Amino acid sequence: MAVHFDNGWNSDISVQNIKKACEVLKVDLYTIVADWEEFKDLQISFLKASTPDADVPTDYAIYSVLYDVADKEGIRYILNGHSFRTEGTSPISWTYMDPLYVRSVHKRFGKVKGFKSFPHMTFAKLQYYIWVKHIREIRLMEFIDYRKKEVDNILSEELGWQYYGGHHHENLYTRFFQSYYLPKKFNIDKRKTELSALVRSAQISREEALKEVSRSGYEHDIKIVSYAVNKLGISKSELEEIMNLPIKSHNDYPTLLPLIRLFRGPIKIAAKLKLVPNILYLKYAR
Questions:
Q1: Nearest to 236, CA basis, from 81, 7, 228
Q2: Is 242:50 a contact under the CB 8 Å cutoff?
Q3: Which of 45, 76, 80, 216 could form a disulfide with 109 if both were Cys (CB 3.0 to 4.6 A apart)?
Q4: Which of 194, 256, 238 is nearest to 60 (CA)?
Q5: Res 269 pLDDT > 90
Q6: 75-110, pLDDT tens digit by residue?
Q7: In the chain, count of helices (H) and strands (E)?
């Protein structure tokens, strides 16, 4: 079973890619559509929070939905497609998320009261899924010599997959976030983590990576920026105000990070036993 969380920002290409892949592979597709007004309010809240984590609501919802569906369908294993060989991992100062953080940002800046439809994965619920329901997340790419160019060719030839112009640009909000919001406001270029991963896995040379980064900044399409502003229902002046807000981080809001670090020992053991992803310990607890 394939699970898709539709946050309202899918590009046409991404929709077709999902459809063709499921048809060719004969995989059932389970789609959860976000309540647009509620989800939009959460996204705007994170923009107003002025942290580099403005795309966290989508990542957090995907994570929550996968466990919810696995529980409902009696599925014990979730296959995670993240590839450290081609994507790397963003530092905690670039990307951080936990349930308290998401709720605290929304409580401070949101207009919609509470989470009525948003799949909110609480700490207690995650423990229930892991220890009671025995649901396990398998990072499949850790066991595969993942070669990006080879995989792209296979996807194109066998599944009719089309490239959408950039890493995670299949989602128009993420495209706005990575190509405009992060570079312009925080001077963060997500290509660096991706290119560094490709260098470490010997898929490109260090010289090629440096050339790619130094050749030009992360180019953005002004049409995508305008589309994002219109879809969020904010004005260009409001976006400008957001861009000019003092830069903050997750440390400026309530989070579970102190608690996570307090229990770094048990988390390390759980990671070694494959009960939780090792990245949880490496990025958050260590």
A1: 228
A2: yes
A3: 45
A4: 256
A5: yes
A6: 999 999 888 889 999 999 999 999 999 999 999 999
A7: 14, 4
216: pLDDT strictly greater than 70: no
Residue whose token pair is 């294993």: 77
Q: Which residues contact 268 (CB under 8 A, 6 or more apart)?
A: 281, 285, 286
Beta strands in 34-89 (DSSP E): 77-80
- Hey, what are 33's tokens? 């559509």
**Both tokens assigned to 175:** 């495209």
**pLDDT, tens only, 153-163:** 999 999 999 99
Mean pLDDT of 232-244: 97
Please enumerate in sequence order all residues whose Cβ is within 8 A of that of 109, keeping only pairs 6 or more positions apart, or say none.
44, 45, 46, 48, 49
Nearest to 248 by CA among 109, 122, 126, 145: 109
